[in-house]
Amino acid sequence: MLSEPVKQRLATLHPEGTAELQRINQLALEAAEPTLLKLCTELIDALLQDRSPTLPQTLSPRDKAFLAFTEQFVTAVSAVSDEQVAELLRFATEDEVYSFVNALYVTDMTRRLDLVAGRVLI
Amino acid sequence: MTRQLEHETTGQGQTERLSRDRLTAGVSVGGPLESAIADFAAAAVRAQTVDPLISELVRLRCAQIHDCRLCGSLRVREALDAGLDEAMQRRIASYETGGFSPAAVAALKLCDAIIMRPAWADAGLKNELRQHFSEEQIAELCVDVVKWSQQKALVALRLEAPLADTPTLLTFDESGAPVFGGPAS
Fold first, then answer.
1. Closest chain B C-alpha to A34 CA, distance in angstroms
2. Does residue B10 sit within a domain?
3. How many domains does chain B have?
4. 3-class DSSP state for residue B68?
5. What is the pTM of this model?
6. Does the domain formed by A4-120 have CATH 1.10.3720.10?
7. Residues spanned by the domain of B118
8. Residue B74 φ then ψ, to 5°
9. B44: distance to nearest CA of chain A, Å?
10. Which residue, A6, A121, A113, A118, is CA-closest to B135?
11. Residue B61 counted as domain residue
12. Which of A120, B13, B100, B109 is the most exposed place for a label (fewest CB within 10 A)?
């Protein structure tokens, strides 16, 4: 989700795009398993803000697979490997992986937009 | 281990990583989220306050950084009409010395800040953008970059094969939905 100041600014400057962006962010929360998406969102925030993520001390193999995928997706999507996707498919169906990756796109790019628009438009 | 290859392909196979046959229409493919993403994309496309050539340079920069084979193979008709050619497309990789207008360079720097490193969005970039664009145009460019990064999901799954071996024309209908058709040259 966009932070409130950025949301308000963008809603003034690009109302239609901002409304649709808010809508896909809401749907992204429903498209992936909430605990997993929250975990991955913390990693995204940390990567984009050059800080260490605050993650649980104990992570399941499933959590680790999705976090590894998320880190590569955020850092350089072109370098996601066949093996990283295969690892996701050990723990989730094709539909779940497809929906998760779309939710990750929405979360990643919205966080990026929030950081940059907060600096160039406010 | 995370690989940080931003400008080159990995040498990894580019075969599809999910079986399309095992995706359920209306659940994942064409499901609520994907349909809403298409609505967002159309809303982004309908905003047209930015010069179409600059918009296309930004779109192609996103394609290049994300290594999206489909996006990289498309050319928007309005940009071709405004002077885009294949030599220009190749210069995007080194756009700061590529002979582009100062406005185009500022837009591409904004694009890089969003898709590569948000910390690059500093007071200098803000000033540079405001020399060339209104606030509405900067907002449009920001939303465009989010829209043109939609393919990150398909790139991660390698479901973004190009439609043809040569550049393909991309236009949009009145609603902002993409229409693919014919060679771009």
1. 15
2. no
3. 1
4. coil
5. 0.95
6. no
7. 25-183
8. -100, 150
9. 6
10. A121
11. yes
12. B13
